[in-house]
Amino acid sequence: MNSSLSMPEAPAAVLPLEEQPGDGGPADGRPADGRPADGRPLYRQLADQYRRAIDNGVLRPGDRMPSMRAFMQRHGVSLATATESYRTLERDALIEARPRAGYFVRARQAATLPAATEPDLAAAPGAAQFVGIHSAISAIVSKFQRYPDALNLGGSTASPDLYPTDALQKAALRALRRRPTLLTTAGHDQGDPELRAIIARRALDVGIQIGADDVIMTHGGIEAVNLALRAVTQPGDTVAVESPCFFGLLQVLESLGLRALEIPASPTTGIAVEALAFALQTHPDIRTVVVVPNLQNPLGSVMPDTHKARLVELCSRAGIALIEDDPYRELVDTAQPPRSLKSWDTDGTVIHCTSFNKTLAPGMRVGWINGGRWHRRVGMLKFTQSRHNEQLSQVVLAEFLETNAYERHLRRLRDRLRIQRERMAAAIAASFPEGTRFTPPGGGMFYWIELPRNVSSSAFFEAALDEGIRVMPGTVFSNAGRFDHFIRLSCPSTDLDQADEAVRSLGRLAARMAAHARTP
Predict the structure, then answer these.
(1) Would you say residue 32 lies in a domain?
(2) Structural domain of residue 60, as residue ranges?
(3) Does residue 302 lie within any of the structural domains?
(4) Residue 90 pLDDT > 80, yes or no?
(5) CA quadruple 190, 191, 197, 199: dihedral positive or negative?
(6) Strands ordered across the beta sheet of 472-473
(7) Total domains, the chain
């Protein structure tokens, strides 16, 4: 783009970088030591500023962007920085260059594939079954290990460079300087008292009213769910779960000798409360229900508040525990975080489990649980099972949560995941064959894709590995042999061009497999 083009400046509501709240730094958008104000390259900060203006409607499709010269003057940056900012916006499909005219805001490309099939709520629930999924998961893990360089579009955490690595490292060094015996002193049984107090204060934001003593720190969310199940069940009991269901939960149920009763879940509203109510009447041996209400894995659904309230009331009237697994809530794309099931709990029915694995640091494995009316039993089980958590991660997390650094990080993480999802949705719609269906989620990093019915997800998984791409076949998300023509794709890669090409390759693969299956 010719930097001498003269164009109107962006609307006044698009503030120069140094005037944006929370960015800090002197007039050129950099602190005194010359580094970008929030640790990212300056061109990325500027690109994100304009992306927010586009998202908020300040800049609308068809609006002319500032000329390069105007951009440089407005932000006090070099031509190289201005050019890279616009290239970033182009790569993210937010603006486009028009010959001899300049840059303009693009109209968002909408996914054109039909929505995923809703479950049949009239169908009676099947029989509860002892879970036997572990061997299938082990086989997939073993195959992954044979392709260590394959692009991972089947994972459940974001790319490492989307997490605040430098800030966490510095916080860890500060913690060790302040408390040199941190690694050699046993911690509190329930977890670091300061961190638990902070968590209790933050829980108020989603309607949970608890104190520090009502929080027990765990080794990630999976230990929290494990503890909750052990607190309310005995081997042989029946547990109602969503269908499809996160395979990690099915593995836990198998390890505890529990039966799974699969309740259909909608890709838009989550578990079918009416189907669960019917199941409670026909299966009196149900001891607990486990749900992921916000960005369910793998569906990406978010339960409406009315459904959440009805679910809590239903379990309370039935006198059974409702285990809420909520690790993705802070990745929902809404101005206010969605409410927790626990916020409707008046009698201790809800056991709330969550972690910071998906939102902040997968390597720290910090989770927590409130056990509702089973809280004391959960505490005893935690002590028996694994004793206290290591302290360093908890102290680092407490420091990070005490400031606004975590909120800034979450905003950036949601923004980047949204961009990645939009790019992936466009690539899926453009390249997958007729008969493919999916419902874009309201946040997070998953796509639950329904392939043409004649395409086996198990065969697709094998063929994708041969092309150097990992996906998760739908068969592992059910203990009842469902979802053979579904796959879960995730968008952890920050190399959007690489991810686009991988999705196009998967689309071509699905088209070949669908055509081959139709050939007599």
Answers:
(1) yes
(2) 17-105
(3) no
(4) yes
(5) negative
(6) 437-438, 446-450, 486-490, 472-473
(7) 1
Give residue 9's pLDDT.
43
The pLDDT value recorded for residue 109 is 59
Q: Is 144 exposed, middle or buried (0-12, 13-18, 19+ CB in 10 A)?
A: middle
DSSP 443: B
Is 43 inside any structural domain?
yes
Is the Cα dihedral 238, 239, 241, 245 positive or negative?
negative
Three-state helix/strand/coil letters over 248-316: HHHHHHHHCCCEEEEEEEECCCEECHHHHHHHHHHCCCEEEEEECCECCCCCCCECCHHHHHHHHHHHH
Q: Which of 67, 64, 72 is nearest to 17 (CA)?
A: 72
**Contact 237/230 with Cβ under 8 angstroms?**
no
The residue-averaged pLDDT of 249-271 equals: 96
* CATH label of the domain that carries residue 28: 1.10.10.10
Q: Which two tokens stand for residue 465?
A: 């590995």
CA distance to 47, 59, 199, 275, 477, per residue, from 68 (Å): 13, 17, 46, 58, 50
Angle at the Cα of 371 (from 367 to 372), degrees rounded to 5? 140
**pLDDT above 70 as % of the chain:** 91
Closest to 228 measured CA to CA, from 384, 369, 389: 369
Above 80 in pLDDT, residue 172?
Answer: yes
Residue 189 is predicted with a pLDDT of 93
> Could you tell me the pTM of the whole model?
0.81
The region of weakest confidence among 108-117, 146-155, 311-320 is 108-117
Q: Percentage of the chain surpassing pLDDT 90?
A: 68
Q: Rounded to an integer, what distance in angstroms lies between the CA atom of residue 340 and that of residue 324? A: 8
* Residue 368 predicted with pLDDT over 70: yes
Largest alpha-carbon pair distance within the chain?
Answer: 75
Instruction: Count Cβ atoms within 10 A of the Cβ of residue 180 and give its class: 0-12 exposed, 13-18 middle, 19 or more buried.
Output: exposed
DSSP states of 69-106 as a string?
A: HHHHHHHT--HHHHHHHHHHHHHTTSEEEETTTEEEEP
Residue 82 placed within a domain: yes
317 strand-pairing partners: none
pLDDT over threshold 70, residue 227: yes
